[in-house]
Every structure is written in C-alpha cells, then in structure tokens.
Amino acid sequence: MKSKSCLKRYYTLFISMCLCSLSPVYGQWTGPKQQPKTQTTVKYGSLTPKHRTDSAMVNFRNYGLGQFIHWGLYAIPGNEWEGVSARKGAAASEWIRSWSGPTAPENWKETYDKLYQQFNPKAFDAKAWARQAKEMGAKYLIFTTKHHDGFALWPSRYSDYNISASPYKKDIVKEVVDAYTAEGIDVFLYFSVLEWNNPDYMLKAPQTEAEKKRFQRFLNYTKNQLLELLQNYPQIKGFWFDGTWDQSWIQAYPFTYALEKELRDKHPGLIIGSRFRNDEHGKRHFDSNGNLLGDYEQGWERKLPGDYSWLNGNDWDAVMTIPPNGWGYMKDWSGLYTKTTDDLLEMLLQAVSMNGNFVLNFGPDGQGNMHPEEDTIASELGQWMQKNGEAIYGASHADLPISKYGYYTQKEGYLYLTVFNRPVNNILRIALPKNSKEVPVAAELLAGGEPLLLKHSEIGLDLDKQAYYDIQLPRGFQTDRAFVVKMKLGSPEAQRQQLMDAKM
To answer: Quick one: the chain helix, strand, coil %, rounded to 5?
Structure first.
C-alpha cells in the first residue's frame, strides 16, 4: 500500500502533466508521436545520423543529472514589479518584459530595457555555483547566454545590449564556462533566437522587399552571435535553442539549415537539440517523415514521457522547474507548490529509467544568489547522489515489467531498483519473464553494501509467464528517502520446478 506522501507525489505529478498539456504547444508534445503514413521528399532534414555513437553523444547519454540556470535582467524584478506578480497579472519571471495590459506599469518595456544599468551582481561567484553543481551530482550545465529580452551575458561584438554596458561589465558566460569546465561539468549554452527589443526581428514571415531585407539583417546577426559563442568558448559541448517558433524563423529554413551545418563544421561533435529549426514543410522537432531534427528530443519541458515506447529510441532530456513554472528568479514562492527533493528524485529516476537525462533549473537573484530553497534541494540531492549515483550515471533502460516499487536501471551486469514504495512485509518481489537469460543471483543495498537475502519463488500462478525473485529487506532498515537495491545478474537455475497448467 502506498503511503499518503507517495499518493500526494503521484497526484502532484498527474496535475503537473495535465497543466502542461494546457500550455502553448510550440512544438512540444505530451504523448507518443504519430508516424506519418506516407513518405515526403525532404531536402532540409536532419544533418546528423540517428543514434550518434561519437564520444560526445555517449557522454550525453551517460550524464543522468544536469543543471539549468536561467539568469539575466529579469532577475532584478524577480517575477514582480511594484507589488504586482505573475499571480496578479504580470508575465512569468523570464517573460516579464512582455507584460502588457491593464496591470502593466506605464512605459513598462522602456523601464525594463533600462534595467541593464542596474545589473551589478556583486554576490555572483561562478566557482561557487560550479562547486554546488558538482556536489549536487550534475554532469552538465545549460546556461542562458541570452533570453528573449535580447540582453547578452557576454560582450558581444554584434550588439550594444550586452554585459559590457552594465555596471558589472565582466564576461559572465566566460566565468561560468570556465568554472564549470574546471569542475569537470560539461557546458551547453542556451540561446534564444527571438528578441523582443530587436527592431529587425519580426513574428510573421517577411513579405515585402523591405521586410525581407530587415529580417535578413537579423538572420546574419544571429549567425554572427552563434559563431562568436563558438569562437569565444570552444570548450562547450552544445547549444540549447529557444524562441524558434515564429513564422519568420520557420520560413527561413534554407538559412537555418546552412547555419546548423556551419556550426557543426566549426565545432565537430557539437550537440544540438531538436528545437533549433524545421524542414521546408514547417515541421519542427521531427521532419515530415518523422525523423528527429537534431541530436536529441528537446520537447520534454516540465513533463516526462508516460511510457518508454513514446521515445522511439531517441536520446532526450527533461528540463524541470522547482516552482510550477518558475525559470527565472522568483522573489516569492509562498502559496505555491514547490517540488520537494523526493518529487525530483522520482522524476530523475523516471527519466533515467527511460534513457533520458533530468535537468533541474535554478534561477539566481539579481545579486547572483541562489534561492534558499534551491540551495537546500541541491544539498539534499547531492547527499543522495553521493550514495546512489551508481544507479544513475551511465545507467540505462531495463526491458522489464514495470515495478510497483519504483524504477529499474541497469549497467554492466547489474540491475538496480530504486525503491520509492516500500512493501509493508519488507519483501521486494522482482518479476522477470521466465525465458530471461539473466536473473538476479545476489542483492545488496547500494548505500552501504549490506547483503540481502534473495531467493527464487515459484508462486504457481496458472499459465504465468513470469518468474519471481524475492529480496528480503532488513526489518531494522530505516530510511526517509528512496533507496537502491543493487542486483548482480547471472544465469538462471538449470532446473526449475515444472508445474502443471490448469485444463479448462
């Protein structure tokens, strides 16, 4: 029987997924992708082979846990202005520049666009951030170089609206990339194509010659900034793109196809998610024939796949917030359900059990401090990962019946069961197909290595196609968090009791 806390977690996850399905689509999805019934000629399709086997993609598959950081000018208002927050009419934290309507302050956009004059995060310490991420167990970082407001956190030669115009002046992207790389954490750069305050940007596809000339300037500017990031920070592993859903970008497919090719040529092994561009038929994430446009699925934002089959074998990651939809800094978390460490561990295991990575978002304040609750969660995740990370890093999907106790992962001759729902009789019953060539032959608690009694149990259910292995948990074993049982796999017994099936 599930405890009340477990039921609460499942209810929260269910409600969260339902709410996600109500948000703007922007190329995301909440279920299995329907494969096209007929094939279409696609000239501007994928530029990379499916299931890349180079070292960069192998590392990506093995990350398990990552960190996302949303930071920019929007950290100064912190999701509110003059006492009005997103719950009273303002836009979400990192979208607050788009705030309009009767609740918006007078001349709000002009006010926001001058916030760079105040941006001087005196508490910012990239090395402290990187140490915290390492202690948490993160293996990669996605960092916002430029969000939809267009303000660049590096001294870009192609825009005056960048960090060098602020009182801080120093290259924040360089500080972050260098600090995380020094801690052995791979860095991916978030880059928004959409720019609200750029006069050359437009939502719709350009029609007139003047509009085409104007938007071509924007395309060239975007290309220059991306090439500049590759040149400035050659140690990065990839890009995480955003703001690519408007028709202006969608209809620029010859340009974006050539741009992706140039980025990959400049940086062999570069990893790009499926959100960057579309084919000539307007299909995003997947081309018109259902082939992935990029190296991994980038549509799992604040949601998780319901079933492994939905993924069709593609690489993927899930990016997740702690508040319901708080990416950038939010001053006030009161009255909101904020995900607990237990919630996040369950999401992490669900992702890894389906060959995905789980990326947890942090939104520092205008001074460069993490939210106190983020600090607490990072510490608690780190304590758990230090003891149980073996079941996460480099682990993969186990093709087994779904367990009512938690999630399976496997690696190098071992099967791991991360237990969220402990049985009241302290017996974990592992069900495997009877024809399995590898079965559990020994078991132990991963944290501490205490050996556990394991026995093969023939239950005698009629026409049962499964075999059962019972693992006895010590009655004195106490834990207030999920725990991992590590099972060594080996050959099944040569002889099994033969039972007569019922004749009906």
So the answer is: 30, 20, 50
Token couple for 395? 């682990």
Q: What percent of the chain has pLDDT over 70?
A: 92
Rg of the chain over Cα atoms, rounded to whole angstroms, equals: 25
Q: Residue count of the chain, please give it.
A: 504
Please give the model's pTM, rounded to 2 decimal places.
Answer: 0.92
Beta-strand runs (E) in 31-139 = 65-69, 80-81, 84-85
State how far the alpha carbon of 257 is from the alpha carbons of 19, 30, 279, 333, in Å: 34, 27, 8, 41
CA angle, residues 255, 261, 263, in degrees to nearest 5? 100
Residue 48, token pair as written in the block: 């990379």
Calpha distance 487→346 (Å, rounded): 20
pLDDT tens digit sequence for 242-272: 999 999 999 999 999 999 999 999 999 999 9
Q: Read off the pLDDT of residues 265-275 as tens digits, 9 standing for 90 and up.
A: 999 999 999 99
d(CA 251, CA 176): 34
On whether the CB atoms of residues 211 and 202 are closer than 8 A, the answer is yes
For residue 208, the surrounding DSSP H or E stretch is none
Distance, CA of 271 to CA of 23 (rounded, Å): 27
Give yes or no for a contact between 294 and 272, defined as CB atoms under 8 angstroms apart: yes
Q: Which amino acid type is present at position 155?
A: P
DSSP-assigned letters across all residues of 228-266: HHHHH-TT--EEEEE---SHHHHTTHHHHHHHHHHHHHH
Cα separation, 459 vs 48, whole angstroms: 49
∠ Cα 157 163 167 (to 5°):
135
Residue 289 · residue 265 · CB < 8 Å: no
Q: Give the Cα-Cα-Cα angle 325, 331, 332 (nearest 5 degrees).
A: 75
